[in-house]
Recover the amino acids of this structure.
């Protein structure tokens, strides 16, 4: 079968991964930097690699390199995470592949507290067909780049105004939806207390597609912003469904509220539309053991901004139906809630969500319901077990017919720490989809063994 990506693209990703690794090794000597670098070897088996109605067995093995860099100084703030994997399919269903993922942001202060330059980039893989599961036959690279300056002007001890600008670029490997963006923003903020801030903000963004088949648009937002944040100590022990569980140390837990409320509207080649603008993010610990979270949104969104806001690919729900690069701008109304219960050796997490996406092209409108429940238990000083169930249903129209797809995923993991730097994990995974279209249904059972070693 043909390779999904060109040789030039593979070389670029491999060189990028090596460059990130070398850079992280150099940065480890910085007193202000927190740098991590680990290598991971994985051997697995799946009975349906492509997640089709009838699948074939495959034995994928991979070697991956993951690096992180966090640093905060008077002139530099950085938060970077990257990963590169080389995958070989032992049954020769596909050629060897190289996949990369990157999520990073850096802010450099040319004039501390006055003038800064921001650079952000997210790189990863999305589906070519967003209505099918991601697989070697349904995968493409995507990249979001944003950069520009911010200027801050003090207006007393507790008030400051700012203006900023961004150039942004969104690129896809296969679909013809590449676009460039220019954004201008301004605002004024006032600190009501050390933990509370109130502000008035405005932004205007122009999105221009390379293809004439896509409709360019301008997105405008004006809103009041309220932010409250406070840290408090809690006894922490585990990170649910993570291959890097923490030891039982006291750490800070963020309690905060962010509310952005105002108005947003569209102009340009699309139909002029407007709606109330709302973004609410709440996280609050109810006790040392229980915390809750809430998120609400009403806004205009698009595939590029959705991909960028999701962070490192793979960090979200495995049953997310995916972005639609060809869809252009859409109206989003969404809400989600979560409850976390954590003791010294056990953590339980429950999350539910709903989202409506309404496109200019009505045939792409869809609604998503999703839920997740997971439990993690440290059985002894070196052994950790976890179990997780994810469920999602999304409703949409395809080929003039109403469709409902329901995805479920069951995951079990047993992780053994080997010394201070290494760990060994055994993972079992079963995924399935039921659908109005029998051709879209599938079942997959996957198992794999992961050996991880921390170089830093």
């Amino acid at each position: 079968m043909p390779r999904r990506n060109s040789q030039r693209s593979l070389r670029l990703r491999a060189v990028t991964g090596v460059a990130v690794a070398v850079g992280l090794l150099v940065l480890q000597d910085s007193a202000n930097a927190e740098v991590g670098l680990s290598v991971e070897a994985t051997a697995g088996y799946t009975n349906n690699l492509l997640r089709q109605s009838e699948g074939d067995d495959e034995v994928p093995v991979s070697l991956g390199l993951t690096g992180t860099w966090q640093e905060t100084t008077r002139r530099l703030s950085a938060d970077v995470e990257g990963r590169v994997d080389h995958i070989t399919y032992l049954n020769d269903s596909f050629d060897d592949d190289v996949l990369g993922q990157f999520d990073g942001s850096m802010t450099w202060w040319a004039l501390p507290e006055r003038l800064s330059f921001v650079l952000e980039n997210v790189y990863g893989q999305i589906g070519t067909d967003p209505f099918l599961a991601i697989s070697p036959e349904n995968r493409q690279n995507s990249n979001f780049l944003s950069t520009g300056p911010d200027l801050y002007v003090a207006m007393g001890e507790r008030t400051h105004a700012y203006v900023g600008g961004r150039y942004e670029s969104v690129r896809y490997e296969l679909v013809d939806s590449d676009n460039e963006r220019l954004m201008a923003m301004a605002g004024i903020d006032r600190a009501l207390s050390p933990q509370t801030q109130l502000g008035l903000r405005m932004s205007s963004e122009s999105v221009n597609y390379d293809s004439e088949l896509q409709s360019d648009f301008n997105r405008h937002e004006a809103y009041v912003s309220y932010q409250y944040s406070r840290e408090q100590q809690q006894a922490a022990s585990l990170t649910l469904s993570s291959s890097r569980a923490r030891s039982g140390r006291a750490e800070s837990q963020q309690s905060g509220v962010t509310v952005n409320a105002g108005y947003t509207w569209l102009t340009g080649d699309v139909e002029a539309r407007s709606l109330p603008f709302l973004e609410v993010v709440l996280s609050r610990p109810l006790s040392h053991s229980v915390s809750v979270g809430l998120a609400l949104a009403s806004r205009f969104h698009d595939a590029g901004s959705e991909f960028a806001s999701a962070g490192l690919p793979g960090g979200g729900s495995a049953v997310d139906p995916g972005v639609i690069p060809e869809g252009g701008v859409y109206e989003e109304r969404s809400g989600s809630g979560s409850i976390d219960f954590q003791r010294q050796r056990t953590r339980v997490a429950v999350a539910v969500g709903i989202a409506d996406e309404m496109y200019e092209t009505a045939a792409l409108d869809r609604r998503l319901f999703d839920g997740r429940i997971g439990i993690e238990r440290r059985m002894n000083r070196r052994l950790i077990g976890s179990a997780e169930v994810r469920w999602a249903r999304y409703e949409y129209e395809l080929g003039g017919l109403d469709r409902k797809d329901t995805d479920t995923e069951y995951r079990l993991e047993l992780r053994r720490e080997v010394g201070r730097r290494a760990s060994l994990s055994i993972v079992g995974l079963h995924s399935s989809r039921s659908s109005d279209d029998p051709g879209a249904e599938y079942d997959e059972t996957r198992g794999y063994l992961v050996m991880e070693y921390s170089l830093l």
